[in-house]
Amino acid sequence: MLCFGVSLIIYINAEKWGFPLKLGLMYAFLLRMILIISEPVLSDDFYRFIFDGQLIKNGINPYLYLPQEAFELLKVGDSEYWNQLLTQMNSSGYYSVYPPLHQLFFWLAALGGEHLSINILILRLAVLLFEILNCLLLIQILKQWNLPKVKVLLYAFNPLVILELTGNLHFEGMVLFGLLGMLYFLGKVNRASILWTWAVGVKLSPLMLGPILLKFFSGKSRLVFLLLSALVIVLLFIPLFFEGAYLNFWQSFRLYQSSFEFNGSIYYLLRWISGFWLDYNPIRTLGPVLSMLSLGLILWLSLGVKKANLPDLVQRIVWIYLIYLLFQTTVHPWYLIPAFGLGILVGDRIFLAWTALVFLSYHAYMGVIVAEQPVFLLIEYVLLFVLIIWSFKSNFVSKFKSS
């Protein structure tokens, strides 16, 4: 959180100090380069990334086999490399849940051979490439909207972005690239559609933006957006159609939604309340119920308003992400990054603050076993909800009245 404070100081004083934007961005990427050869320490997801990539490289569909089954098919015996991937991954009990476009980068990493350090380096270079593209897109959109270009430093120096993208190799930066590109080309429906489907292809969550995007377009543009997006999504997900792989993908996706919990807010509150009369964890019931409530609110926010201008559209997208995350059973810190990146364009303070507060959840990793600390979760979400209420009263209500 100290680093977050430093990043704000840099942003607030950049113009006063005569700090050239190019120099600031150079320093921001030098910070990322410090991590270039490091192994992620706060996430072990990369083991599954590389394992899936190696399966594809060896002609095995990662959606058709559990890791142990695939391991036996490969007949790699006592290979230290393969055993490390299998034993260190956190998802050995279910099929891969990463969409095919995600898997493309896993395969690229596997081209580095059976060398973990090289695999990690290739993934990191891919992540860094999209970090550069995100900063360029932010600058172009800020310029397009007549906003100070210095705002890009909020993203470039944000500690969560640096740690979770470059450091821990998560792909939310690629999702953000698709969403920023969509906004930049929103006047050209074909390009906007393809870039939005890129975001969906990397991670499924941007699908929830479909209704509001259809609401934004009208007439022929709406039809083109709908048909082109549907076509590209089908093409991107073709690997799931072979040998019933989509069934395994869906099974693992549902397992994730109804079994895993981390850094939840509304879900944790309801789980605590239910503990007064239930002697078991109600996640299998609460998870789907909260998902349906979230979907209802997102549809209301998307369809229950008049056509928005571009800044209003972005603000609503940020609030859609907020609804989605507040109702999730699992909110890993890197989940915030797409909404935070978009929020910079509209001066959103909720996700900016949350990128600092979410570091309180990292206390769960202090011991050998991941164990969340209720006091830190309470501080995180009490402060966050105070900010949400304040923002709702001062911003959200007024915009709805004027729409």
The global form is globular
User: What percentage of the residues does DSSP assign to strands (E)?
Assistant: under 5%
Taken together, the total number of domains comes to 1
Q: What's the main sheet like? A: none
In helices, the fraction of residues equals 55-70%
Distance between the termini: 37 Å
What is the total tally of β strands?
Answer: 0
SSE topology string? HHHHHHHHHHHHHHHHHHHH
Oligomeric state as shown: single chain
Radius of gyration over alpha carbons? 21 Å
pLDDT < 50 stretches: none
Mean pLDDT: 90
What is the helix tally? 20
Describe the protein's architecture and organization.
- The chain is mainly α.
- It has one domain.
- Helices cover 66% and strands 0% of the residues.
- It contains 20 helices and no strands.
- The chain has helices spanning 2-13, 21-33, 45-57, 67-74, 80-88, 100-110, 116-144, 152-156, 159-167, 172-184, 189-202, 210-216, 219-236, 245-259, 266-274, 283-303, 310-326, 337-343, 350-357, 374-402.
- α6 packs across α7, α10 (172-184) runs antiparallel to α11 and α16 (283-303) runs antiparallel to α17.
- The relative contact order is 0.10.
- The mean pLDDT is 90.
- Keywords: Membrane, Transmembrane, Transmembrane helix.
- The chain crosses the membrane at residues 24-42, 116-139, 160-187, 193-214, 223-242, 285-305, 317-337, 349-369, 375-392.
- This is Mannosyltransferase.
